[in-house]
Amino acid sequence: MNQLQGESVVNQQTTYTVLQSLGWNEYFSKLFAAYAEQGYHVGRITLEHKRIYRLLSEYGELLGEVTGKLRFEATGREDFPAVGDWVVIKPRPEEQKASIHTILPRKSKFSRKLAGDTVEEQIVAANVDTVFLVNALNNDFNIRRMERYLILAWESGATPVIVLSKADLCEDLDARMAEVESIAIGVPIHVVSAAQGEGLDQLEPYLGVGNTIALIGSSGVGKSTLINTLSGTDMLRVNGVRGGDDRGRHTTTHRELVQLPSGALMIDTPGMRELQLLEADEGFRGAFDDVDSIVEACRFNDCQHAKEPGCAVRTALADGSLEQARFDSYLKLQRELAYVARKENERLAANEKAKWKKISMDLRQRKPKR
Ligand code: GDP
Ligand code: ZN
């Protein structure tokens, strides 16, 4: 039963238990003590959209808005709440709203550095406890890439766990394992096959109540498959139905921090997915060198690999020198990179607009010198 929805839970459970099921622990409790004395409450951010937030709290789900003070004091994007953050709130349960006063210090964070006039930091996931570094055991397996993910994980403050996926496609498991062990000393390594449902029970220890997990890994390694498996068919139910009453309708409510049937919390934000893709853009493109060179051999630069004459891709697919699955992964990566680039442009445009707005406001407010 989903106990986090509805006001009645406050009577049934202590606040602490409700918060614990959302990932609350002593660490945050200590940080919050001073605020508690002043009558504040806490909530955990499950979604951010244009600086409007969804959060879960002892009052169930609330819509959050940052206070003017928080906005005024923010020096950059990292000072605004991100998915996974614990925020200090003044709830208005009757309106299902809350004002967000401040963010409790993050225990861990994944961020992207955004280059602009100044380097800004965009938090893509906060307070992740365990991060699964997913690497596939097929042709995409790449030990250097794994090293980079490990660095990313260590830097985040989350505890890395290596998940080697698609075990069913691997013929030399022992050799692969030895390779991974050599670069990941002390890091747990689990071999799974979502396709065959094997090895998944090894992940159970990380899926306990209140533990926050996230997945990183390049496109096509099987993250979505794993997420679906972990969340099971219960996902929709857990993700929003209130027991019995009409407000149970928001089953389709979108959240980027969700509770798994096991009681663990999973963060899956577009930013987390982009994180690796930007890396892919910088250095991991090499993973698709073979496909790139085939594409370059097409007669037309803008070949869509559909009906164009002289299309090297269709030839390679036909003669088997390029696997359809590999080409699909390639296309998926291309689409995702295009998406990231588009988002980045939108963001830059929005920033520019905000900057000018601020400048013109500053000018208006400027008082003449005496
Ligand atoms: P993502 O891009 O990391 O989210 O990867 P997906 O979950 O979309 O998986 C990419 C492809 O790999 C899909 O066609 C999946 O069906 C396939 N796949 C995922 N897990 C396994 C597995 O354990 N074994 C095999 N053979 N294929 C898998
Ligand atoms: Zn082509």
Number of domains: 3
Low-confidence stretches: 1-12, 234-252, 279-284
Rg (CA only): 23 Å
Biggest β-sheet: strands ordered side by side in the sheet:
10-9-8-11-13-12
- Got a strand count? 13
Q: Which CATH C-level class of the largest domain is it?
A: Alpha Beta
Largest sheet: 6 strands, mixed
Q: Total number of helical segments?
A: 12
**Helix amount, in percent?**
25-40%
Write down the secondary-structure element order.
Answer: HHHEEEHEEEEEHEHEEHHEEHHHH
Coarse morphology: globular
Which small molecules are bound? Answer: guanosine-5'-diphosphate, zinc ion
Kindly report how far apart the N and C termini lie.
66 Å
Portion in beta strands:
15-25%
As for the CATH topology of the largest domain, it is: Rossmann fold
| Alpha-beta content class | alpha/beta
CATH homologous group name of the largest domain: P-loop containing nucleotide triphosphate hydrolases
CATH structural architecture of the largest domain? 3-Layer(aba) Sandwich
